[in-house]
Write a structure and sequence with these properties.
Length: 505
């Protein structure tokens, strides 16, 4: 489920090809928060399995997905789905320009038509039957939450090979999901140095690492015969979580239940489409309703949600073309000054309402949230307004019904506070984009060169789109500051005129 924007026509080189075992605002899944004590700007150490152990255990032939452009696996999946209860479709899996594989209209499709009708028997959920029941029983006895449970389920079913009913589905999954989970720490530092997405990617990587380490300590090490390290290791968890981040869907009409939905997850994203997957009770299947007609041969799209370009890169590994995503945003970091006489009081007020310093807020091409303005008021407030610190912090956290929080006497300073952070961030993006043209990729392998070029292009696309938003915010801020200062100047001139008039009188 990935759209590629200005994508180099190369495939990320999979680390699973020859040696598959050598190698989720807050964390994307709550389970990891229990044991991730500190999220820093480096990735946690990972554990790798021994290649000799893997070979001697007979696990070297496990299928961990396929190359994204594999027609054989796609055809096998389609045939298996039809034989497992999927009704006849008006779409077929084909190689496409946007996303490498996607669902293409086989016949005329009308606007407002319901498509897919994938039955619940083809969903993978936390209640799915395990091909190795003993493994599932242990995890459920330990009350493992849905995300790590499903990640382990994918690995278990892959290890069962042809004994698993999901073999055709797993064989058609990408061997290396387009996800920031596969970026190395040095690649994150090098290519995403200007973007806050780097911090969120590190949080996610640390979350997956912590999840694996916790499961290994609590369960895997106690049952080595059921959970051999040659199968259940950091690399396979990186693969399974990459699949979940990019393909797991939440179904509102099933009380928000999460599921992998084969066939439906072959649909790619378009920023111009507003239709979503959901469970239809009348037809008892996952469907979506087209919001436009499609001609035979056209790729059919859905929306993955109103996400920024950074969010799309984080989970799906692509960046839409610049200016095509109406819900794009860039996260900007703001901090209180430690030299502020009221630093401790302001920080205490922020913490009371679940905020901190630094604190990130999203900026869109249309402006910024009222919460950011409240944070800026707090940051520039003098000691004389200490009684209002709590009100400002509450407004910054959206914990107040009052949406019109205004402090006219602080307006200019607050806008300048936002502008300073905006221009500092613009400088970082510009520095990266200027250097990217001459960046030494330092690789000798042609395949690795293709991968580096691909990652670099994604980073350039993201940085260009995020800087564009910052440029727009800079323009708006400067104009508003100019208007304020111009108004103050006019008022001052008017006052001087009155004063001179009365003096002459």
């Amino acid at each position: 489920m990935a759209e590629a924007s200005r994508i180099l026509q190369t495939t990320l080189i999979s680390t699973f090809t020859q040696t598959p075992f050598q190698k989720p605002r807050t964390l994307a899944y709550p389970y990891a928060q229990k044991f991730i004590k500190r999220v820093t700007t480096r990735c946690l150490a990972t554990t790798t399995s021994n290649e000799e152990t893997k070979k001697s255990s007979g696990f070297e032939n496990i299928t961990w997905g396929c190359e994204m452009d594999s027609p054989e696996n796609a055809e096998g999946l389609q045939k298996w789905l039809y034989g497992s209860g999927l009704p006849n479709q008006k779409m077929g899996i084909q190689k496409v320009e946007v996303g490498e594989r996607g669902l293409v209209a086989l016949t005329n499709i009308r606007k407002g038509e319901k498509l897919l009708f994938v039955p619940p028997s083809l969903f993978i959920t936390a209640d799915s039957e395990w091909s190795c029941p003993e493994v599932g029983d242990i995890l459920k006895r330990e009350n493992i939450p849905d995300w790590p449970l499903l990640a382990t389920y994918l690995i278990s079913e892959a290890s069962m090979k042809d004994s698993s009913r999901w073999m055709n589905y797993i064989s058609a999954l990408p061997r290396q999901p387009y996800s920031l989970l596969y970026w190395t720490p040095s690649e994150l530092d090098r290519y995403l140095e200007a973007s806050q997405i780097r911090e969120r990617a590190i949080e996610r990587i640390n979350g997956v690492t912590g999840t694996y380490n916790d499961l290994r300590r609590r369960i895997f090490s106690k049952y080595p015969n059921l959970f051999p390290e040659a199968v259940y290791n950091m690399e396979t968890f990186k693969w399974s979580f990459g699949i979940l981040f990019s393909r797991l869907v939440r179904l509102p009409s099933m009380d928000g239940r999460v599921a992998l939905v084969p066939w439906a997850d072959m649909l790619n994203h378009s920023c111009e489409v507003e239709t979503f997957l959901d469970y239809d009770r009348s037809s008892q299947g996952v469907v979506f309703t087209t919001d436009r007609p499609y001609q035979p041969g056209e790729q059919v799209f859905i929306s993955y949600g109103k996400k920024s370009n950074g969010d799309l890169l984080l989970s799906y590994g692509f960046v839409p073309r610049e200016g095509t995503n109406p819900t794009d945003s860039v996260e900007l970091s703001f901090s209180l000054k430690k030299s502020d006489k009221c630093y401790k009081e302001k920080l205490e007020a922020l913490k009371k309402h679940g905020l901190s310093t630094p604190q990130c807020f999203p900026l869109q091409i249309t402006g910024w949230p009222v919460e950011l303005m409240a944070y800026a008021y707090l940051a520039v407030s003098p000691p004389s307004l200490s009684k209002q610190f709590g009100e400002m912090a509450a407004a910054a956290s959206n914990e107040t019904k009052r949406k019109d929080l205004r402090y006219p006497e602080l307006e200019e300073q607050a806008l300048q506070f936002i502008l300073d952070s905006c221009e500092s961030s613009i400088s970082k993006y510009s520095k990266f984009l200027q250097a990217s043209g001459s960046m030494d990729l330092d690789v000798t392998s042609p395949k690795q060169l293709s991968r580096k070029l691909f990652l670099k292009q994604l980073a350039v696309d993201l940085s260009t789109s995020e800087r564009r938003i910052l440029y727009r915010a800079q323009y708006i801020l400067r104009r508003r500051l100019r208007d304020i200062r111009s108004g103050e100047l006019k008022a001052l001139k008017l006052f001087d005129g009155f004063r001179n008039f009365f003096k002459s009188d």
